[in-house]
Amino acid sequence: MIPRPKPERFRLRRTMLFMNAQKPGLIKDAYIYGVDSIMLDLEDAVAENQKDAARFSLYHALTAIDYGQTEVIVRINGLDTPHWQEDIRCAVAGGVDGVRIPTCESAQDVRLVEEHVLAAEREFGVGEGRTLIMAALESPKGVLNAPEIAAASDRLFGIALSAGDFHRSMHTHYVPGGIELNTARSLIVMAARAAGVQCFDTVFTNLDDEEGFEAEVRMIHDMGFDGKSLINPRQIAYVHQTLAPTPKEIETAELYVRTYREQSQRGVGVYTVNGKMVDIAFIKDADRVLALAKACGVYHGDL
Amino acid sequence: MEIRKTALAGTLESSDAQVTVSPGDSGIELTLESSVMNQYGRQIRATVLDVLARLGVRDCRIKVVDKGALDCTLKARVECAVFRSNGISAGKVPWGGDIR
C-alpha cells in the first residue's frame, strides 16, 4: 500500500480535475498533469450498474498508485442514493485525502457525511479526523444555505459551485459572461470567506470555446475564487497561470511589507507609498499575495 | 468463496481487463487472452490465481481478456466478478481485508 501524507486542510487548490473512477486508462497516470487535485468520480460518470465495479477499481487505484503531491478527492454518490455509504467506506479505507458531497443542501448533510467518514476511519484504522470533506452546491437550496454549509465541520475545506444541476433547477442554461450564475457565485465566495474556507468554481464544458473558458477563469479569479473544477488536462495551464500573482502584484506586495516594517518600527501606522495610503489592512493582503506566489512557485525574493 | 453464478466485470477498453467467472467443479480453469501475452502472460496468470486463492475460490471457470491492464486493475476486476457472482459486490465489502 502506498502511504499518503496526512491531508492538509488548507493548501493550494487552483485546479481540480474530474476523472471517471471506473476508467483505468484515465486514473492510472492522472498525477502527471501537474494538477493540484484530482477528483475520482463515483457519481455521474459511472453508470448505475457499474457503481460496485467502480469502487473495486477505486480502492486499488488509491492503494497502488503513487499520486505524489497531487491531492486525491473522491466524489461520492448523492445522499438520496443507495451508494454513498459504501462509497465512503471504500474511499476512506483506501486512504483518500477527502470526499466531495454532491448536491449538498444543508449543514446536516455535511454532518451526516462526517459521521460516516468517522465510522469508516474507525472501522479501517485510518487516523481519526484524517479525511477531509468538501461540499458541492448544485441547487438553489444549497446555494442559499452556503453560509451554514461552509461552517458545518472542521474537516470541511471548501465549497464548490456545480452548475449543471443548478442551471436546470433555475430554468436557465449556460450564458457567456455568466449572468445566470452571478448571484450563486457571489454568495458562495462570500459564504466561504465568512467561514474561512476555500471556494471553487464550476466546470467549463465546451472544450472548443477557449476564449470563453479563459474569460470565465479571469472572472472567477477577480471574484475571489480559489480555484476551478476542470474536465480536461489542457485546461490546467491557463488556470495556474491566471491565478498566480503577477510580477507587478508581487512587487507591490513586497514594497508594502518592507515599508510597513520600517514604518511600524518608527511607530507609524499609516503612511503613503507612491501616492497610495497603506495601513495594516494592506499588509494582510500583501502577505496573502506573497504566500500565494510562493505556493505557485513564482516568488524568488527573500521575504 | 464459491462461484454461484456467471458474473462479469470490466471492459475491453485499453488498460482494462474483462473478467468472466462461472461455476466449475475441477479446480481453477483459467483461460487468458492478452494483448501483451508474450511480455506479461505469466505475471497476469499469477495475479489472477493469487486473487482467487486469497478469496478462497477453489473451483471456477475464469476467462480473462486483458487489454494491457495494470496489476491493480486486474485485481479489481477479478474481485468484482467473484463478489458479483455471490451477489455481495454492492455493500459491506471487506476493504483492506480480503480486498487488498
TrEMBL record, chain A:
Q: Any keyword Magnesium?
A: yes
Give the matching InterPro entries.
Aldolase/citrate-lyase_domain (IPR005000), Citrate_lyase_beta/mcl1/mcl2 (IPR011206), Pyrv/PenolPyrv_kinase-like_dom (IPR015813), Pyrv_kinase-like_dom_sf (IPR040442)
The answer to whether keyword Lyase applies is yes
Any one Gene Ontology MF annotation carried by this entry is:
lyase activity
What Pfam families is this protein classified in?
HpcH_HpaI (PF03328)
Concerning Gene3D superfamilies, the annotation shows: Phosphoenolpyruvate-binding domains (3.20.20.60)
Q: Which cofactor does it need?
A: Mg(2+)
The record's keywords, sorted A to Z, are: Lyase, Magnesium, Metal-binding
Residues that, per the record, bind substrate: 75, 138
Chain residues that bind Mg(2+): 138, 165
Give GO terms for biological process: oxaloacetate metabolic process
Residue span, HpcH/HpaI aldolase/citrate lyase domain: 14-233
Annotated PANTHER family: CITRATE LYASE SUBUNIT BETA, LYASE BETA SUBUNIT, PUTATIVE (AFU_ORTHOLOGUE AFUA_4G13030)-RELATED
UniProt-recorded name of the protein: Citrate lyase subunit beta
Q: Which organism is it from?
A: Selenomonas montiformis
Q: What is the lineage of its organism?
A: Bacteria, Bacillati, Bacillota, Negativicutes, Selenomonadales
From TrEMBL, chain B:
Q: Name one GO molecular function term.
A: lyase activity
Keyword Cytoplasm found: yes
O-(phosphoribosyl dephospho-coenzyme A)serine PTM positions = 14
Q: Which residues cross the membrane?
A: none
Compartments (UniProt record): Cytoplasm
Q: Which domain of life is it from?
A: Bacteria
Classification via Pfam families: ACP
Task: List the coiled-coil residues.
Answer: none
- Main localization of the protein described in the UniProt heading: cytoplasm
Which residues are the signal sequence here?
none
Assigned keywords, A-Z? Cytoplasm, Lyase, Phosphoprotein
Listed GO cellular component terms? Answer: cytoplasm
Task: Share what the entry says about its subunit structure, partners included.
Answer: Oligomer with a subunit composition of (alpha,beta,gamma)6.
Function summary: Covalent carrier of the coenzyme of citrate lyase.
Can you tell me which family this protein belongs to?
Belongs to the CitD family.
Q: What HAMAP family does UniProt report for this protein, alphabetically?
A: CitD (MF_00805)
Protein name in the entry: Citrate lyase acyl carrier protein
Q: Which gene encodes it?
A: citD
